[in-house]
Amino acid sequence: MVQCDEEVKKDSFNLTFILMYCLGTLAQISGSIFPNAQLYWKYKLRDIGNPWNPSSNATTDLQDEFTADFALVGNATTIFALIISIIYTRRWNIVNRMIACFFVYIILFLIIVFFVGIDTDSWQRGFLYLTLFLIFLISCTNAVFLVTLFQMCSKFSPVYISAILSGQALCGIFSSSLQILTLSIDAKPETNGFLYFSATVAFVAMVCVTFVACMKYSEFFIYHVERANPKNIVKVDIPKELVFSIWKRQKFVFVSLLLIVGISSMVHPGITATVQSTGAGVGNKWNDTFFVPVITFFVYNFLDLVGREMALKVERPTDEIPVLSLSFIRIVLIPVLLFCNLSSKHNTRVLFNSDAVYILVIILFAVSNGYLTNICVIMLPKNYDGSDKDRAVTIAMLFFLLLLGSGVFSFLGLALLKVM
Length: 420
Hints:
It is a single chain. By secondary structure, the chain is mainly alpha-helical. The chain has two domains: 224 residues, Growth Hormone, Chain: A, CATH 1.20.1250; 182 residues. The chain has 14 helices and no strands. α2 packs across α7, α4 packs antiparallel against α5 and α10 packs parallel to α13. The termini are far apart.
């Protein structure tokens, strides 16, 4: 029997807070681990008629197809599967859904690990389609996981929602660190792939164990999860008037979040990953090998996390209009980025022929993304009407906008790359 709210006063040893960080990391892992394992995919889809050259900037049709199709399959499937999941799975037991997602994640990533050691040179296109099918299944699982996570956290305070969002930045640090490690030890492509995906399996297993431990030992976590479970929700009818009322009260925060997440998803990693060092191609290992993984991925995600943590400490500004203005101003960074040293495949003029300019843009994008996102989440409770339903619907609308902004603007970023 779960104790009453007055008796469950604090999160002992911050176990639930740590778990939320891990769950946020897991929510982002499928979208982060695949792009960072680029050396492995480049090897698997290489031109087998020519010697393997990992330093070459030339790409095959299959390599380009994988990059484009991964984004298309991942984003389209997630958005579609989210809608299906919201309709059909939200009434299922939250704990059972969460554990089922953990096991499906582990099985699918183990299949990917299995094919790391398989010679696929004779059926490269078949391997490409198989991989995209596995990405499709992982995206479907991720959609169920996200719906479950958002439903579960609807009964927690905004601090725990911020932990989930910060965990997403932590995922980028995790995957980019793996990439830098494998490049530092000059790991073979197969070793690169094995390290990436076996580490992912180990991480999912660790999160699963932590989740089960919290369900068994943390009264704070048990109490809030049971409050969110569908069987304990007497009525789920949501009147349109409530949705419109929440929008009216939270519209500036919601629009700010849509701009923040949308602009960031539009440029990172779709556009930022195509930027090369101005000194690339002359044999310098930093410029040719480490510039993109360190600056574009590790530095971006690290500073994104720093920005999120700063917001939790500073909690300024407290007014919605300055936050909306800052969110909108970030748009000016997009043309600056487009005139940096993009890959030669894109016919853009290089106006900022300096790595320092690009690094400054990455710093501004990352810190502002993390800081403003958490500031918006912190501001949400100011406009609650005090009821549990108002809070739950507000959080549901928040995550829907985050996912919508991420998916739609990612497509816009891909479209922008196509016409450049």
